[in-house]
Amino acid sequence: QLSGKWFLVGMASCCSYLAEHSHQLEATTVTISVLDGQSLAISTFRKLDRMCWEIRQHYLPTQAPGRFLLKGEGDCSKVGVVVGEADPSSFIILYYQKGRSISVKLYGRSSLVSDAVVDKFEQRARAVGLSEDVTYYFPTYGFCDSADEFHVLDGEL
């Protein structure tokens, strides 16, 4: 159900890098493929220094439905990913937890989602202590569809 192309619409996070660089946010798309019926292959396409990059990640399933694990280098860099709410035809809200910090992301099947969906996203962000001050919305134009072989980051976060 989650397979296919998604647009990153918004993100709520206390990440200091995001706060300092929010004026430089780039339009971002994600393509999700379901592998072996359980794990997810994620390809993120975004611009960096005016070049299109692809970042490939692998979300591993956990025992609980709708929960995944993104492994990085070492035990400290594991990121828990939880599907908070989804309507596979229009939007998905994902939670990312690394240690004690939580981020919430809103993806849409198009770069624009309804006000009702934005309200749901903002409510979910507030519920985990993320205010409007740390909620960012991404551009709705300038998307990358692909990256050449020299601009692919393969592996974990």
From TrEMBL:
Record keywords, A-Z: Disulfide bond, Secreted, Signal
Gene3D superfamilies on file: 2.40.128.20
SUPFAM superfamilies associated with the record: Lipocalins (SSF50814)
Gene Ontology CC: one annotated term: extracellular exosome
GO biological process: complement activation
One GO MF term attached to the UniProt entry: complement binding
A Pfam entry, by short name: Lipocalin
Domain Lipocalin/cytosolic fatty-acid binding: 3-137
Record-linked InterPro entries: A1-microglobln, C8G, Calycin, Lipocln_cytosolic_FA-bd_dom
Chief location of this protein within or outside the cell: secreted
Subcellular locations according to the entry: Secreted
The protein's name in its UniProt record: CO8G protein
Species per Swiss-Prot/TrEMBL record: Nesospiza acunhae
